[in-house]
Amino acid sequence: MMRIMSGEARAGSLQDVEEAGRPLALVTGAGRSTGIAASVVLDLARAGWDVAFTYWTPYDARKAWGVEEGAPGELRQKVTSLGARALAVEADLSDPAAPARLFERVEGELGNVTALVVCHCESVASGLLDTTVESFDRHFAVNTRATWLLIREYGLRFRGRHGSGRIVSLTSDHTAGNLPYGASKGAMDRITLAAARELAQLGVSCNVINPGPIDTGWMTDENRADGTAFTPLGRLGVPQDCANLVTFLCSAEGGWINGQLLKSNGGLA
Fold first, then answer.
1. To 10 degrees, the CA torsion angle through 195, 105, 31, 78?
2. Span 143-154, mean pLDDT?
3. What is the pTM of this model?
4. Can you tell me the distance from the alpha carbon of 86 to that of 107, in angstroms, rounded to the nearest whole number?
5. What is the CATH number assigned to the segment(s) 9-263?
6. What is the DSSP string of 8-32?
7. For residue 147, what pLDDT band results from cuts at 50, 70 and 90?
8. How far, CA to CA in Å, does 140 sit from each of 94, 186, 221?
């Protein structure tokens, strides 16, 4: 099996990285070119990582933006054009058997996973009075249970050197009027932060990022105006803002940050 170099080894030059072999990241939820996950995938590839990523077409088909035909294939091509290996896997993460199958596939084709970046989500807005049990259960299956199972699978399979492993999850604090999404993301936070302690023997750093509202195509004109007005830096967050922090946390330089819920929102708080 591929031996993954330590964070200390990756602190050197790009030549050092290439000689030792590129580390591998697994990023979930990269079905659309405008999404956060796609920016994370490309930024990690530029930083010297091979990248496997997941997408789930039926989810996009249910949303107002619809399916972006060919997006996963185009993303994979962009990654390979950067000199990285890439793998795109369609995965229904509401299926509790999916995480194990996903890791088997990724390990079989690319090797051991050094960084797990959880960007996928189920997000259908509803409040306390109108959320259905079906919707509530689906949100917790996708956002919470799948994150636990992905982290568990990562912990059981991790083969990197102590200090090299990384887990990063993306969260949200939007709960009022968005109950199942916000509640399931809050539970996801606790699972990810618990991993900082429970995977300590592996030397894996585990952090959560709250990027605030990011314009990935879901915003109305009113959302954009409000977001700009209430952000001290006077602009909306974009996917690259989040990707910058993910890549830093996955780097050797970001390895001392551990067990944290980090807000990266331009001061909107």
1. 110
2. 98
3. 0.90
4. 12
5. 3.40.50.720
6. TGGGS-HHHHHHH---EEEEE---S
7. very high
8. 9, 10, 30
